[in-house]
Amino acid sequence: MVLPPEKAVPDSVTVPGQLVTQPELIGKRVRVIGLEAKPEYNGKLGTVTVWDETRQRAGVLLDSSSRLALKPANLEPLDSASSAPAARIAAILAQPVERGEPSAIDDPPPLLIIVESLNPARGHAIEIGASETIGALKARYAQVFWSARYAQVLWGRAEAAGPAERLAPNMSEREEYELLVRLVHDGAELPDDARLKECGLATGSRVIAMDLRQRKGVAAQIGRQMGRWWPLLLAILLLLLLVGEASGAVTGAAHPVCNRPLIIFVLLAAPLLVPYGLILSGRFQLETGYRVLWFVHHPPLMTSDDL
Length: 307
Description:
Layout: E1 29-32, E2 45-52, E3 57-62, E4 67-70, E5 75-77, H1 84-94, E6 111-118, E7 121-128, H2 134-159, E8 177-185, E9 188-189, E10 206-215, H3 218-247, H4 260-269, H5 273-282
Parallel strand pairs: 6-10
Antiparallel strand pairs: 1-2, 1-5, 2-3, 3-4, 6-7, 8-9, 8-10
Helix pairs in contact: 3-4, 3-5
């Protein structure tokens, strides 16, 4: 994002002890500090990608691909002292080195990966090394995506006629929500710890990005699992009830004992409810390429062979 001349700041604006309070610091590396409600995020490193002037919150993309909206007091910029070793290493690597003939140990050229999202429909060309992991590609994509979205939000607020018409904050920007990114290639989800060259990605490969915005917390996780597996749980419950009725485990005046042919039929037919419940549960899976229904395959929209 190109800053106006009156708001441009030098590269040395990040000094020890200075808080992130200006939108010009987008792209700076920070450390999360002072969180009492979520102490597990303290000490995490990330990059400032969004600044919400209305809510006075900074959107931070952590190295673990999680996104948080935090107050400036909870962000500590990485000082120059912590980056001094990295600067010395970079200076050493920048020195000219006499090279002879190219050998097999030379680093391969970077790959140009096309990351496309379906909702909203947009694509980003990301240049990344072939030895990088899928997790690094996710972090690069999230940084590019949120930078573009931040510019779009700024344009929308500038064109708004009044405060009532300004864009409302997306639910992924709220503190109670988190954003998960999944990358799919040729119908299979790419694991975070795998390297690009191991996944068969090359220059021009198209990867589908799926953004999942969900609530945080144990209660929300239990609700998502119940919403996913309720057909299978219902099938198991019906199976137990039918077996109990047929075997006479449930007795009484209102529950007469079944005769032998009906008992045999129920014992043979009732277990069929379980695979049907498993099939119905597969329709509620959120992942693409990693399903309970491993025997169902959908052809991908476009593969690397079509390019």
